[in-house]
Amino acid sequence: MTSLKELVLEQVRKYHREQEPGNFVPGVTPILSSGAVLDEDDRAAFVEAALDMRIAAGPSARRFESAFAAYFKLRKAHLVNSGSSANLLALTALTSPKLGEARLRPGDEVVTVAAGFPTTVNPILQNGLIPVFVDVELGTYNTTAERVAEAISPRTRAIMIAHTLGNPFPVAEIADLATEHDLFLVEDNCDAVGSTYQGRLTGTFGDLSTVSFYPAHHLTAGEGGCVLTGSLELARIVESLRDWGRDCWCEPGTDNTCLKRFDYQLGTLPAGYDHKYVYSHIGYNLKATDTQGALVLSQLRRLPEFVEARRRNFRRLYEGLADLPGLLLPEATPGSDPSWFGFPISVRPDAPFTRQELVAQLEDRKIGTRRLFAGNLTRHPAYQDAPCRIVGDLANSDFVTEHTFWIGVYPGITTEMADFVVDTVRSFATGRH
Ligand SMILES: Cc1ncc(COP(=O)(O)O)c(C=O)c1O
């Protein structure tokens, strides 16, 4: 007999099919720069978790963590409530007293990139550490191993860099530098799930890496993120920091996994103090819910298809725009195969039109555009008084701030849409609009 729940979920699937978007009308239907691509299985998985009232983290979150760690062939993944939280946890983990002498201390330096998303950098400042900013290259919008090497001082203890818009930074060379100088490496892989560098997935080179599941990203949980690591020691620290700072590692709702719940003596607590309530870190609560876990677990099935669609859309745009003067098109970092997040375009200063004019034309035709996030972060109000060190000039970060924007390649963009984008840019750049 069909259960009531099965009947409800069948109706949910039917409802999903009714929501399918209508035909694409050029200039009228918005072409988003990014967005979630959800099918009826995703909607059913999400609603099922809600029907079961799995409102805290639970079995789907755990299954996702195992499956996602397996995708990267890493030992542990921890689901959290955003990519920014993932970055905060990854960097904060490196300050843990559990790491003894290796831990980062206030005043230590972390090398990072000036042009990018703020929450790659914020955890450095939030932990009382000093960001050391290096510039990026134009075209790849990533930094180089040479620039990072130049930035390393006796106070440098870590490197934390994002793979810009899905394009890998030269992560193997930077990981080698980290090893050579005894530094930790955190890869902000929020925009690059599925990208490879020298045939290896980004997110697997660093001591820790992070992912975002905000709807703009390769997989979505609504809001969400993940911290990945191959180190069980770092994984334990991340979990503790995520879960209030607790020393205990029992799943929520379970007790005494270690079989020593009442046998510890830690800190200056009385012997036998309940291990569930012993805190070894100054922690947070950054957990995700099981509805988020169920959605992102369902999305994971489609990751190869999503990555392929992003690459296909990128190629279509690139081939359609390659011969246009006045534009600097994106370049994959040598040795990489990006799972692109977006398609960055810079308008050359000597072009007969400006970035603003091109963007206005695109937006007018309902083609979504975005900036390369903050551009030069050091120029934003929040960072005016922030302690930092800048190595070299940030001329290219400034260029990006003036001249660069990106358009979408996400899997919701069809070939027809990509062709309309190409036509719009071509007509504008060749003065035919
Ligand atoms: C490189 C990078 N890091 C971190 C984040 C933050 O992710 P979230 O929005 O999930 O906090 C983003 C967001 O787009 C990002 O692009």
TrEMBL record:
Domain of life: Bacteria
InterPro entries: DegT/StrS_aminotransferase, PyrdxlP-dep_Trfase, PyrdxlP-dep_Trfase_major, PyrdxlP-dep_Trfase_small
Record carries keyword Ribosomal protein: no
GO molecular function, one term: transaminase activity
Pfam families: DegT_DnrJ_EryC1
SUPFAM superfamilies: PLP-dependent transferases
Keyword Membrane found: no
GO biological process, one term: polysaccharide biosynthetic process
Annotated keywords: Pyridoxal phosphate
Cofactor: pyridoxal 5'-phosphate
Family, per entry: Belongs to the DegT/DnrJ/EryC1 family.
Full protein name: Lipopolysaccharide biosynthesis protein RfbH
Lineage: Bacteria, Bacillati, Actinomycetota, Actinomycetes, Micromonosporales
